[in-house]
Design goal:
The structure is a homodimer. By secondary structure, chain A is mainly alpha-helical. Helices cover 73% and strands 4% of the residues of chain A. Chain A binds a DNA duplex through residues 5-7, 16-19, 21-22, 26, 36-40, 62-64.
Chain lengths: 253, 253
DNA sequence: GGTAGGCGCTGACGCCGCGTCAACCGCAAC
DNA sequence: GTTGCGGTTGACGCGGCGTCAGCGCCTACC
């Protein structure tokens, strides 16, 4: 039986010697024989196996998976189907990411701040669904769906103005906190009222006092939200929550 | 000035303590102060910087790039534009990859071998353009474009039959080589003639003898092609090239 | 005979962004 | 005293090799 040394194999298959040694090291492709000083020699069967490895590798499969397939422990079609799923998921993530990046570029160029709606746009499906699941738990399906619908109904100009209005509220709240105003201060409650109005416009309906309270909790409990507020001014999330609680309590009484 | 310990920061920003230590280790975000036993304390400026880090990280930028941006050595818009390019390139690569994987699944299910056209489909842009550039060098723009057009013009059934016809030729060539037939043997040249016919049908025109010679060279020079032939039978690429050279020389004389 | 060069070998580090141990320290509550 | 929390500094691991470093063997040339 003919055998080939590594240099030949690298030329035939277009892989580096390092790669062949790696495949040997991880047990993916062992030489047919190793003679005089550890020289690797590959036979026809090994070349064929290498071909299959390279084919599957080109499809993006991991070496461990490829090994499982070639050793018969895994069905190729099953593995590829699963792989195709992952590819599609990853592609969708890149899609959203690219859109968010484009958004950010436009906003930076226009000198406008980040839109809160885009805060979650780049999150992967798991985190996004976690957030949405929490929202549904807190406020119910109807509220979440109504909110999404309301956002869609809004005119372009109106929708674009939302981030700026939120930003303004955040800054005014930060100022008041800086000046030492308590959460139940009239000036603070005035700003909260405006905050409530903006939230109501994005939700498509005026939230119940309890729901608004819950939103304040979310601002602190959710790392993503808290981070955004604390970027405006450290501690703002907690301050805002307190003010929202006061406002909600007054609505009820 | 207020400062926060790590536990607070992890809750505010939603990052792990490990991440904060990592950012400290690579010099991306250093604590405002470290007191009594190395305890890290973060000030408002650090929280703001962390916010910016997380924002850019969510967009998929690398930590090194983020550091450059925040330290003023790199313009955010420029970096993001470049990043968006890369995202799009990567997304396109995944698209092609997913298509190739789907193809492969269909072929495996149908029990048919890989279509040669798909050999290059999953390659990244660089390698693909390298290959195409080489093809244009070898045969000229017109030939390459005509070939692509011919493939598109072909009927579905015809196009699907191409892989099988190539496969059959490869197997017959391998058999003849096994039996010790020389490249100029009549039986070998008969198979080569069929090979030429298939190539002609995919190119949309009968190749010049010189172009056909060049194709034989490519079969050996290109690792990807050589690998595919040598998977059918080790050494087949070289054998096929020799046979193609003989055929081309006879056409000229 | 020496020596330079080419090809092969075996480690081992590096990449990227942390997760995840392990081992230890200081402070507070029981 | 001990338990537990919250912090510290290492270190390994992931995937798929690229890229040295340092060595051995064979050949060619002087």
């Amino acid at each position: 039986m003919r055998t080939w040394p590594m240099t030949e194999v690298t030329k035939l298959a277009g892989v580096s010697a390092r790669t062949l040694r790696h495949y040997d090291a991880i047990g993916l492709l062992e030489p047919a024989a190793t003679g005089h000083g550890g020289l690797r020699r590959y036979g026809e069967a090994e070349l064929l196996r290498l071909q299959q490895i390279l084919l599957l590798r080109r499809l993006g499969l991991g070496l461990a998976t490829i090994g499982d397939i070639l050793d018969g422990g895994l069905d190729a079609v099953t593995a590829l189907r699963r792989h195709a799923e992952q590819l599609k998921t990853e592609r969708e993530r890149l899609d959203r990411l690219a859109a968010t990046v484009d958004d950010t570029i436009r906003q930076l160029e226009g000198g406008r701040p980040m839109a809160p709606e885009t805060w979650f746009a780049g999150l992967d499906a798991r985190r996004r669904s976690e957030y949405e699941a929490e929202a549904r738990r807190r406020w119910g399906d109807a509220a979440v769906d109504a909110g999404a619908a309301a956002m869609r109904r809004m005119g372009e100009a109106e929708r674009e103005a939302v981030p700026g209005r939120f930003e303004a509220v955040h800054r005014r709240m930060a100022e008041l906190r800086e000046r030492g105003c308590a959460a139940d201060d009239a000036a603070v409650q005035e700003v909260v009222a405006e905050h409530y109005a903006i939230v109501a416009s994005t939700w498509g309906a005026a939230p119940e006092a309890q729901a608004y309270r819950g939103l304040g909790d979310l601002y602190v409990d959710s790392p993503e939200f808290a981070a955004v507020f604390d970027a405006v001014a450290a501690g703002l999330a907690v301050y805002l929550r307190a003010a929202m609680h006061v406002w909600a309590d007054r609505q009820v009484s």
